[in-house]
Amino acid sequence: GAGADNDLYINQAIVFIEDAIQYRSINHRVDSKSLWLYRWYYSRTCQWILSLTITIILALAFIEEPSSLTVTSDVRYRRPAWNPPCGLTESIELLCFLVFMVDVSVKSYLIGWKEFWKNKWLMAYILTLIVSLADWIVSLSFFCKESVRIRRILRPFFLLQNSSMMKKTLKSINSTLPEMASVVLLLAVHLSLFTMFAMLLFARTKDNQQDKEWVVYFRNLPDSLTSLLVLLTTANNPDVMIPAYSKNRAYSIFFILFTVLGNLFLMNLLTAIIYNQFRGYLLKSVQSSLFRRRLGIRAAFEVLSSLKETPASAQQSCVSVGALLQVLQKAEMDSRCKQAIMRSLKMCSCDQLSAAQFQKLFEELDKDAIKQHPSSPEYQSRFMQKMQFAFGHPYFGYLGNVVALANIISICVVLVMDADKQPSERDDFFLGAINCFFILYYLLEMLLKILAMGLKRYLSYPSNRFDGLLTIILLILEIATFAVYGFPHPGWRPEFMGLLSLWDMVRLVNMLIVFRFLRIIPNMKFMALVVTTLLDLVKNLRAFAGILLVVFYAFAITGIMLFKGAVVPLGNTRYIGNNPNAFVFSLWVNNFFIIFQGKKVISWCFAHFQAEVICCLLYVLSVHLICRWAKIYFVAWWLISSVIWVNLFVALLLENFIHKWDRRCQRESLSDIEYQRTVELMFRDVLEEPTEEELMEKLHQHPHLQLCR
């Protein structure tokens, strides 16, 4: 009995510590079988299988009818796409649904019946599975010929519910919506008032030649509203005011006022509100994550203090060092944190740990990840020591930057001189000779740095790995060029040979040399700060990328169902004229991400990089081809992707940058240490530690854990 109880307490402590590391809730079953199932479910293998299943079910959209498996998106040149037979993708879907059913069953069992009814995500998970399975049955009953498949729009939910950080982010966005709605309402009022003014200013007159503004942009209320909405995105600026401006210059005042009030004031006010509100809600979310971590650590302490080996005479609860070491050996955690905690335990003189000491040990989880670079080799020779000092000095790196700059300047001079020459008129001798010289210098610089720093220390710096890799690639290309075309000499311009011509080889080498010039970034503190901010966003804000993928996927699938067959391919597209079908077809051919007639409406970069294309499609599809209600789809996309999501990204970019800017003065710049930040650590300085009373109150409310005190 006592041995079995001790094993149970040890296993409970292991799971609670793993929950704390991953910021998971501890409100789950804690009996022996449930703990084994819990650790199995959160093992790397199970989570990898679940992630693979989500990836597969999302990727099915690329092979389902209408298939995207073509080399080119241009319907004039591509072959008929392969469409899978009925039952193939449906069989894969069924396997994915089986995995999801196992997933939701295990989750529901582990948290218990009472907690299940409180968990809205799990209930939505089950509802999504039921609807998807019903739609799957309907699809098979129609032999896969149905045009609307509801389950395809629901697929992104499986990605959303599997990420706790995405759920927190979505909850934060949802909490920010009321404040955003007030500014969006103000934008709507601004748009409506100026629409009324526009219809009065540009009303129809007796002179048809002077009515171009009315005919094209302000013919009626929907067209006027659409024209100004597009102007709010600046996509039709200055086209929208050219007819009126040609008639009277004073009309430009109307468009200037609309743009200044809408873009410079209201849109930036929306950014400020989103930054202020979303930062607060994200801070609350991170605060709750910290509470979960502290609660998990305290729960581990409480169950370990219930071990039979704990002295009964102790006035307060305590945990033996041996029990904690046993837990640490079995727990899945970062090796750096585990080693740091074990070192602290070995340095501790006492055999028993209080709750405060126990919690302090695990504060190692909250610290920045520090990467210590290996030490340089120690040479005995006096000559080698001088060489190590000279070539390991920062000034040697600065010399390399100056040489790289000279290389860039020489390439620019040659490119300017040869800009108007035909390939047959170019003499590549000079460019080939200077490239050979600089590449040899880069190779010598790399070897000398390895000599001074040692190979391990050299490779421990990302800038050196980047520099060395490009140097090796440049050397290989240069050797290949010499092997095929010989050494540079006057009139060095042989004919095309092999895979690449000499000019192509030289261009490739020059592009890599220009790219290699990025090595100067670590030496410029402000530029390095900007780059590390962007890299931190890429590494740590995966939740935002996931939600963005959900939005893109849902709109793409919706677009397939809404606009299938809207545009008919034309045989001859040389003359487009005034045919709206031909106009959209030209957009179709020239923009790979917009493919209609049952093909994917892939929305990549719609509002961010190709706003003009959206506005053209918004006008042509809604006015000429389908119906005016199609505008709702494009306006919704613009609001969600461009207005809301871009501002959210700007808010987090500002928060990350300001955080790094404030810390750069507080932290001493150490050349041998690199700090790696996470989203939780970004707010660490402003988070409040939970009190012992709050932790104990929450533990006593645990639905499955009975504490001794």
UniProtKB/TrEMBL annotation:
Its main location: membrane. The keyword Glycoprotein applies. It catalyses: Ca(2+)(in) = Ca(2+)(out); Na(+)(in) = Na(+)(out). The chain crosses the membrane at residues 45-63, 92-110, 122-143, 180-202, 253-275, 395-417, 429-448, 469-488, 508-531, 543-563, 575-594, 601-626, 632-654. Keywords: Calcium, Calcium channel, Calcium transport, Endosome, Glycoprotein, Ion channel, Ion transport, Lysosome, Membrane, Repeat, Transmembrane, Transmembrane helix, Transport, Voltage-gated channel. The keyword Transport applies. It is found in: Late endosome membrane; Lysosome membrane. It is a multi-pass membrane protein. Residues 55-278, 398-657 form the Ion transport domain. One of its GO terms (molecular function) is voltage-gated channel activity. Belongs to the calcium channel alpha-1 subunit (TC 1.A.1.11) family. Two pore calcium channel subfamily. This is Two pore channel protein 2. It comes from Catharus fuscescens. The lineage of its organism: Eukaryota, Metazoa, Chordata, Craniata, Vertebrata.
